[in-house]
Specification:
This protein is α/β, with parallel strands linked by helices. About 25% of the residues lie in helices and about 25% in strands. It has a single domain, classed as Metallo-beta-lactamase, Chain A. A hairpin with a 4-residue loop joins strand 2 and strand 3. It starts with 5 loop residues before the first strand and ends in an 11-residue tail after the last strand. Bound molecules: zinc ion (ZN). The site of zinc ion has 5 residues, from loops.
Amino acid sequence: MTQAWKAYAFRYASMPERYEDQLFLGGDPSVNWGMDYFFWALQSRDRTIVVDTGANAAKMAPKGRTPLIDPVSALAGVGIDASEVTEVFLTHAHWDHVGNLDAFPKAHFWMQAREMQSVTGPDMTYTKIRGSYQMDEVQKLVGLVYEDRLTFLDGDGTFAPGLDYLLLPGHSAGQTALRVQTENGPVLLASDAVHYYREALEERVFQSFNDVKEMLASLRQCMAEVGGDLDRLIPGHDPIVSARYPAETHLANGEPVALRIDQLPTKPLGI
Ligand SMILES: [Zn+2]
């Protein structure tokens, strides 16, 4: 029997106003897309794998983002104790994805070697590329190497039964997605290889990138991976994800936190 994973997307912050021209090259400044911030967790019978760490409130607010819940509390809401987590998969090293590394003191981490080369090498001499990273987080990643707590990945592979990773570069040099087998079939947890459903559908050029052509090719590859079925694609920042997957935990105001992305969406995509 194939391994089926339970999969959560945790909505930990948002930016209710995020206009199309701030997101995409040639975007319309009057169209508001909004933006949600997620990290993820995958669970099998005997393993819990956290995917990215989110960022703590202290890092979100000065950047104009609205922190909704501390990622540690979001995990606790579904019974995951961050201080006991032993496996953290990093999809890339942008600040909103690695902004809480200290919350996982017992964890071992995995990330593409390409991403580390990028964040510690000549790529970072370009302020445009460097803008999506934070020096203290990169220094912590280097620290993990010296503590033997970071294993480097090279391209595509199998992380666990029913869990494959795919290098989909462009947004960042080592941007990685996960193909997750669930009881409802495979889903592609795209992380930021695809931020929004419509970005993939329309091959839009996201404003934060390492390599534009690679980024566009990765959008196309994501669509091919899911055979064009957007119900199998989980983008990294789309508020539509929050609106259409069943939620297991909520904020006091009723907004969702822990979304079950291994379940079938409860609403049609509507785009
Ligand atoms: Zn990113």
